[in-house]
Amino acid sequence: MGSKHSKGTTSTSDPVPFKSFRVPFVDLEEATNNFDDKFFIGEGGFGKVYRGVLCDGTKVALKRRKIESSQGIEEFQTEIEMLSQLRHPNLVSLIGYCDENNELILIYDYMENGNLSSHLYGSDLPSMSWEQRLEICIGAARGLHYLHTSGIIQCDVKSANILLDENFVAKVADFGLSKTTHGSVVSTDVKGSFGYLDPEYFRSLQLTEKSDVYSFGVVLCEVLCAKPAIVAALLREQVNLAEWAMNWQKKGQLEQIIDPNLFGETAMKCLAYPGVDRPSMGEVLWNLEYALHLQEPVIQENSTIPIDELSLQINDFSHVDTSSNAAQIGTLNS
Ligand SMILES: Nc1ncnc2c1ncn2[C@@H]1O[C@H](COP(=O)(O)OP(=O)(O)OP(=O)(O)O)[C@@H](O)[C@H]1O
To answer: How many domains does one find in the chain?
Structure first.
């Protein structure tokens, strides 16, 4: 949950009506040995995240708002409102929250294997098999499909917000920017993360479920190419992975960067412009499940080939027209 998007107020009094989820601060101090650095997992826009163990033995992750920050209250409330109503095996579970004094802390089920992006690039973690990747994408698609059929747009779909439990089951996380729309088009300020933002939403400020589909298409590209959504390529401007992959597709050479037997076409359909040409999340899910079904014999044959070998050939970004992305990034930063 990133405070970069927050428009919250500064009052901390009774921020949410779900008192049954409330956990005393002293219990959280105990769970983390007083927020000891040894328990620190990472940091996002909202604040630091710690692992901990509650007195009943439940392993948890605690997201603690930066004390100096006056932002994040609106996202804190949205997160609690959304997650206290939603339950699905592919959504992260909110166990409770703490809003004592100046503290705002969200308490989640602890996800043993962290987030999807750290398994794709930028870490020493072992490469995941194709089958595992596809199953993770299917899990995340199920979570998003459930959200969309519940009338909710997640609004910040990215690989860092797909968490993995001890069995590598995908759980969609971070609902601070989510919107309840019940299928209608909503006018709103642009929110989301660089590299994942639907260009149509960016231009029109009209939010629909297809914006999540676009962002999920970028996640599929990351999974297929083992590259981050924004790639700093040699001396050039930052390169947007989605546009780079679509350029290869336009040239009819998608197989140059990804194995055509996998789910490249599904990823490309998610990135279609205009948004009405994109599939629904249910169709994406069906396509991925079908890809898994088709892949089973192929996966068995290739199961020892790490993705890095496939992505070795995709380091040439010289064909990308970065002008429109650079414009988008520039505008977002301003
Ligand atoms: N329930 C959880 N279990 C385990 N690790 C978690 C959990 N929730 C978050 N993390 C980890 O904590 C770190 C910070 O996450 P956080 O969601 O605050 O920020 P982010 O998604 O990295 O960035 P942003 O604030 O821009 O969305 C990440 O490494 C994330 O994987």
So the answer is: 2
Q: Could you tell me the two tokens for 87?
A: 């339950």
Rg (CA), the chain: 20
Contacts (Cβ under 8 Å, ≥6 apart) of 191: 5, 155, 156, 177
Pocket test for ligand 1, best of 43, 49, 123, 175 (most atoms within 8 A of CB): 49
Instruction: Output the known binding site for ATP.
Output: 63
pTM recorded for the entire structure = 0.82
Amino acid at 157: V
Q: Which of 81, 109, 137 is the last residue of a domain?
A: 109
How many helices and strands, by DSSP H and E, does the chain display? 11, 13
DSSP letter string over 208-254? -HHHHHHHHHHHHHHHHHT--SEEE-TTS-EEEHHHHHHHHHHTT-G
Q: Which amino acid is at 233?
A: A
Count the residues in the chain. 334
- Which pair of structure tokens corresponds to residue 46? 């909202």
Catalytic machinery residues: 156
Q: What is the pLDDT of residue 330?
A: 29
Determine the distance separating the centroid of ligand 1 and the alpha carbon of 161, expressed in angstroms. 7
Whether 23 and 83 map to the same domain: the answer is yes
From the CA of 322, how far away is ligand 1's center (Å)? 29
Three-state DSSP state, 262: coil
Distance, in Å, from the CA atom of 291 to the CA atom of 285, rounded to the nearest integer, reads 10
Supply the ipTM of this predicted assembly: 0.98
173 located within any domain = yes
Range of the domain at 70: 19-109
pLDDT above 90: percentage of residues in the chain: 54
Judge residue 313's burial from the number of C-beta atoms within 10 Å of its C-beta, 0-12 exposed, 13-18 middle, 19 or more buried: exposed
As a whole number of angstroms, the distance between CA 329 and CA 24 comes to: 41
